[in-house]
Amino acid sequence: MKLPRTTLVLVLLALGLGGFVYFYEIRGATQRAEIKEQKQQIFSFTEDDVQSLIIKTKDITLNLERNTQSENPKWLLTSPTSEPANDGIVAYLLDLLVKGTSDRTLSTPANQLGNFGLDQPLATININLKNQQTYQLTLGNPAFNRRFLYAQTDSAAQPNGNVDVLLVSPDFENAVNREISEWKQPANPSTSETTPEKDQ
């Protein structure tokens, strides 16, 4: 039995459309999801990988190093002063660096970084890992609605000369924009807690 020509054309169109839907919607969706997830993660190291941090703001440059002598405190402030660091404050910043994501990536010419505040950044964070690898995150201006900060990693420029500008959480500004006293380990509160017990 011979199929009419229009039926044959419709069957071929249906097969072609089915193949397109399969490859684009089903297989392509998983690939796009993987690519999107890779783009969203700012860095791929863990908190335990980090050996030291250098945080440069407009007002101060801080050097923080992991304490190899003891677990308490975990971090030491080595510059501009040398003393134990506030582990909670450092942990907050590390959590943002390790788990931080970028909602979007903007490809922009390198000579337009000033539009995002990345030529005179809010802060620059240099991250040194235990395996000697280094990373950098530069924080620029907040976006117009203050829901994001513009940021840039030390990734290489694209072949067309453009660089990637990330949109990251404004929590990064809170994490680095601190007085030196906040980076220092607070006085031991145990003395004030034991004093009332002695009075009883």
Task: For the structure shown, list the relevant keywords.
elongated, 2 domains, nine-stranded antiparallel sheet, alpha+beta, 5 helices, 27% strand, 200 residues, 9 strands
How would you describe the overall organization of this protein?
Helix content is about 35%, strand content about 25%. With about 200 residues, the chain is an alpha+beta fold. It folds into two domains: about 1-30; about 45-185. It is elongated and about 90 Å long.
Structural class of the secondary structure composition? alpha+beta
Specify the biggest β-sheet: 9 strands, antiparallel
Number of folding domains? Answer: 2
Shape assignment: elongated
The average pLDDT value, as a whole number, equals: 82
Percent of sequence in beta strands: 25-35%
Low-confidence stretches: 32-39, 189-200
Distance between the termini: 104 Å
Percent in helix: 25-40%
What is the number of helical segments per DSSP (H or I, 4+ residues)?
5
Kindly report the spatial arrangement of strands forming the biggest sheet.
Answer: 4-3-2-1-6-7-8-9-5
The count of DSSP E runs of length 2 or more, i.e. the number of strands, is 9
Query: Over all CA atoms, what is the radius of gyration?
Result: 26 Å
Give the helices and strands as they follow along the chain. Answer: HEEEEHEEEEEHHH
